[in-house]
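Tokens for chain A. Residues wanted.
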């Protein structure tokens, strides 16, 4: 099915071994540049994305397809059961005018693992109706046989759960699959753009790769060397994608997928289509913001040891002064120090807090937190990119994440944290920040989006705290109002005395 320079997919020959997803781009122009720079000749698009900007975005998508000459591979993302997938595929053929279909039949919401029984049933029916099916499957050899018997001539095994950011977890299993079906093109959905992962992926003798890179802060990479052939690109080997590189940031690693595929306004991929199995929502969310994950009356998912008062200190010396006063939740934020000194302070803080019954949060230094037995870790957005979230979870640590924008909130929620912090709520002099004060309205809006605790931070004083709680915060993080006070111990005592009065109703009444 392949030669050195081309890949044969149901009689269509392509040179690029990279299929590009079209979801979650800020604009059609971003998608256009991504296609141009990646060299992809095939793009995937979901029929079920209902709110992609309406007719205008749909026209832009089709214009992009025509201008770039790429081939569209529709998918049945988000479908549960064979009947739903078949119905979606039939509509996709009418809308996109192609017999190609990437067949997804979801069997488990947490991992988006395919339902093998529903997948085979749908594949058999669609192949009988003339579809050219690209089935998204696990690396199971028996499932591969059943799909080939159903009429499939291409297989799309996963490298890891969609949205998990874990790259290629199963090179051995894929190698077995390659040996089992030597003449069948295998297109791996890798869920990662990490360079090392790409090398391992291709060493497994797979044929091609399907991915949607994560554009850091919505930026298109400055360079992305591409395989030869087709549009203007630097010379490279189409059969050696291991040599590709990009300046995109890697997706944070998760224990499983972020969420099942769902409509999202502001995405670039595809025309607006509403099906009976995916009714349009009553109201579209704001451009660029993550979709609300909670209803009006839904309660926040509790985290039992997150205190209403959250103190942040910059050295262990504070703890012997504060812990005897009844402090219950504290973060160690250690910046610009040698690693050896950081680990020594964290070890001392762990021992002090454990003895006093206080919960310790370690800022940024997640590996030291694991090694030294801290119960919590807090990560900023930049640190989240490099952190091994799976390891943090494996060792039982709870996780908090900083957010300052809609995009950062969506990134934070994708790794299923135990709380998110929003800041700066008010103007702060603690450090120079590129964000303007968020204000109480933003606190309320954040709370309406999430079902986990929300921590307000930045410029919060004891006098301002009731308003922050009234807006929806579950906890307030404080630095300068205590540490810069004339008597830090006295100011901390005031805070600890007031925290028991902070209920949402009382805060609103005040």
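Reply:
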């Amino acid at each position: 099915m392949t030669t050195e320079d081309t890949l044969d997919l149901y009689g269509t020959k392509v040179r690029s071994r990279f299929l590009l997803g079209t979801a979650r781009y800020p604009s059609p122009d971003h998608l256009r540049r991504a296609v141009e720079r990646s060299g992809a000749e095939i793009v995937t698009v979901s029929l079920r994305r209902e709110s992609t900007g309406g007719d205008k975005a749909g026209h832009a998508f089709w214009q992009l397809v025509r201008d770039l000459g790429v081939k569209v591979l529709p998918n049945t993302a988000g479908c549960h059961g064979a009947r739903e997938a078949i119905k979606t595929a039939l509509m996709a053929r009418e809308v996109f005018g192609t017999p190609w279909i990437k067949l997804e039949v979801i069997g488990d919401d947490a991992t988006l693992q395919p339902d093998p029984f529903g997948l085979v049933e749908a594949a058999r029916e669609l192949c009988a109706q003339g579809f050219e099916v690209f089935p998204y499957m696990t690396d199971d050899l028996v499932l591969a046989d059943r799909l080939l018997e159903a009429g499939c001539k291409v297989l799309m095994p996963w490298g890891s759960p969609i949205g998990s950011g874990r790259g290629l977890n199963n090179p051995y299993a894929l190698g077995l699959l390659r040996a089992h079906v030597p003449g069948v093109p295998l297109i791996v959905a890798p869920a990662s753009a990490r360079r090392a992962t790409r090398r391992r992926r291709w060493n497994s003798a797979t044929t091609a790769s399907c991915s949607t890179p994560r554009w850091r802060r919505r930026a298109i990479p400055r360079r992305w060397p591409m395989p030869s052939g087709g549009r203007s690109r630097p010379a490279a080997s189409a059969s050696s994608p291991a040599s590709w590189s990009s300046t995109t940031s890697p997706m944070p690693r998760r224990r499983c997928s972020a969420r099942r595929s769902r409509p999202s306004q502001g995405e670039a991929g595809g025309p607006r289509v509403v099906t009976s199995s995916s009714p349009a929502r009553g109201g579209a969310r704001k451009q660029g913001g993550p979709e609300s994950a909670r209803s009006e009356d839904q309660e926040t998912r509790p985290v039992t040891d997150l205190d209403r008062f959250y103190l942040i200190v910059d050295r262990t010396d504070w703890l012997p002064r504060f812990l005897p006063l009844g402090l219950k939740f504290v973060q160690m934020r250690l910046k610009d120090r040698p690693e050896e000194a950081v680990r020594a302070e964290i070890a001392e803080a762990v021992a002090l807090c454990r003895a006093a019954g206080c919960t310790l949060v370690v800022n940024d230094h997640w590996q030291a937190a694991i090694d030294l037995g801290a119960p919590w870790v807090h990560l900023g957005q930049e640190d989240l990119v490099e952190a091994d979230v799976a390891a943090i979870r494996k060792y039982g640590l709870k996780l908090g994440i900083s957010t300052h924008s809609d995009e950062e909130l969506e990134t934070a929620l994708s790794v299923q944290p135990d709380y998110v912090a929003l800041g700066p709520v008010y103007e702060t002099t603690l450090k120079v920040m590129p964000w303007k004060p968020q204000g109480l309205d933003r606190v309320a809006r954040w709370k309406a989006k999430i079902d986990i605790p929300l921590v307000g931070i930045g410029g919060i004083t004891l006098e301002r705290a009731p308003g922050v709680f009234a807006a929806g915060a579950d906890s307030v993080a404080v630095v300068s109002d205590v540490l810069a006070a004339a008597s830090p111990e006295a100011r901390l005592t005031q805070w600890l005395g007031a925290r028991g009065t902070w209920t949402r109703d009382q805060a609103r009444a005040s």
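The radius of gyration is 25 Å. The chain has two domains: 7-208, 309-499.
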